[in-house]
Design goal:
437 residues; alpha/beta; Aspartate Aminotransferase, domain 2; 7-stranded mixed β-sheet; 6-stranded mixed β-sheet; 15 strands; globular; binds pyridoxal-5'-phosphate
């Protein structure tokens, strides 16, 4: 009896790569990825999970649904404005356009009028100084952590950083600021206690070994009860010859009435800080970046240090920072300031369309910012078991799962996406898993 091993009928690689649909996919996805997908589908057939005659169809379907990146856009229905797992700040239209513009050849380090080399990042710096005139100069680096490393290295490597014990914080997933600073060769001179630090504690510690005094905004927790700290004003009044550095974390450049306790660069500089450090992708609503703003002499010391080159940002970040500050509405600010009545109307419309109730729901700043500050709003309350199909759907929707419910908060969903979100929820309710756009 002769029987053909069905595996011998599996289409060969050369044949599959020559199919018109596969060749077209190579224009879009590149050879390496297409070959990997071809070989994955052949493997399925070798394992008998696919018939030889199904290989072409499955392969074309897989190629058609694959993009060059596995990153997928997500509708953030959690009510958390700066969601670390969703990449922190969504960029403004202006910032996205600026990134596209900057993605080709651009005059990032060239003066087109003279044809000679120019300073990198002057446009982004200009935008920062317009937004925060209290700063004499500014420098943009890779992220907040890099800004802190650079400042600690330049001011205090081999010397001491004087810092309150109440400000030795861990930011997220094991990222501890004290360890980061110690990695630069600076020694931490801890003063005060967890809940109380006094001016005398700082003054006792400051001496010939002091490189800088650092104030860190404990952005992700609050100490309540018997507490006291020393303000920048008090420190400035008592300390003259030592750089006073404030790590603000959040990136507010000016005060925001919605977040009265959140520090901002303008106020910190006015209070006497020589230098402030902030992230670009938290409340500023821009790309990942670290901002250093303050006295010109200090900023230029930072910029001249060899480490500045190692933490320098690319042209895309420079373009996005500039456009975040100089362009149209910034999504983080729109979500933060969303009108509760408007959110309610949108939630009611969604609720009616999917047959679910609206409940009061507080959003959050997130990203380790403004803990305990509720952003009053509304959510549509769905059964908890819808969360998973919503996440896996297209568009992917991330709800908040809380108290046995799947909550859809529209604060961070752009209003123009409401219809797509409604359709996505309707599909998971009816159990229809087909893709919709
Ligand atoms: C977030 C944060 C940082 C780290 O900034 P990244 O941009 O995430 O590197 C440093 N300090 C404080 C106080 C922060 O809140």
């Amino acid at each position: 009896m002769t029987s053909v091993d069905p595996r011998r009928l599996i289409p060969r690689t050369d044949h599959l790569l020559g199919l018109p649909a596969v060749r077209a996919a190579q224009e879009r996805l590149g050879q390496d990825l297409v070959r990997a997908i071809v070989s994955d589908v052949q493997d399925l057939a070798r394992r008998g999970e696919l018939g030889p005659d199904e290989v072409e169809g499955v392969l074309t379907a897989r190629l058609a649904s694959r993009s060059p990146t596995l990153l997928r856009p997500v509708l953030n229905a959690t009510g958390v404005v700066i969601h670390t797992n969703l990449g922190r700040a969504p960029l403004s239209r202006a910032a996205v356009d600026a990134i596209v513009t900057a993605s080709g050849y651009v005059d990032v380090e060239l003066d087109l009028a003279t044809g000679i080399r120019s300073k990198r990042g002057t446009a982004a710096k200009g935008a920062l100084l317009r937004a925060c005139p209290a700063a004499e100069d500014a420098l943009v680096v890779n992220n907040g952590a890099a800004a802190l490393v650079l400042a600690t290295t330049v001011f205090a490597a081999g010397r001491e950083v004087v810092i309150s014990r109440g400000e030795l914080i861990e930011i997220g997933a094991g990222f501890r600021l004290p360890d980061l600073m110690a990695s630069t060769g600076a020694r931490l001179r801890e003063v005060g206690t967890t809940n109380r630090t006094h001016l005398a504690d700082y003054l006792d510690a400051i001496g010939p070994e002091t490189g800088c005094v650092l104030k860190v905004h404990p952005s992700n927790f609050r100490v309540e009860g018997f507490t006291s700290g020393v303000s920048l004003e008090e420190l400035r009044a008592a300390i003259q010859d030592v750089p006073l550095v404030a790590d603000l974390g959040s990136g507010l450049l000016v005060p925001d009435p919605v977040l009265p306790d959140e520090p901002d660069a303008t106020s910190a500089l006015a209070a006497g800080a020589d230098l402030v450090i902030a992230s670009g992708d938290k409340l500023l609503g821009g790309p990942q970046a670290g901002l250093l703003l303050g006295r010109a002499e200090l900023v230029s010391r930072l910029a001249r240090h060899p480490l500045a080159r190692a933490v320098r940002v690319d042209k895309l970040t420079l373009a996005a920072i500039e456009a975040t500050l100089s362009g149209g509405p910034v999504p983080v600010m729109q979500s933060l300031h969303a009108d509760a009545a408007v959110l309610r109307t949108r939630a009611e419309r969604l609720a009616a369309a999917v047959g679910a109730p609206v409940v009061a729901h507080d959003g959050r700043v997130g990203g380790g910012g403004a803990p305990g500050v509720p952003l009053h709003g509304w959510a549509v309350r769905l059964p908890a078991d819808l969360a998973e199909p919503l996440r896996r759907g297209d568009p992917a929707v991330l709800p908040r799962v809380h108290d046995g419910a799947c909550l859809i908060d529209l604060r961070c969903v752009p209003p123009e996406e409401d219809d797509r979100l409604t359709a996505a929820i309707q599909r998971v309710i009816t159990g229809d898993r087909t893709v919709g756009h």
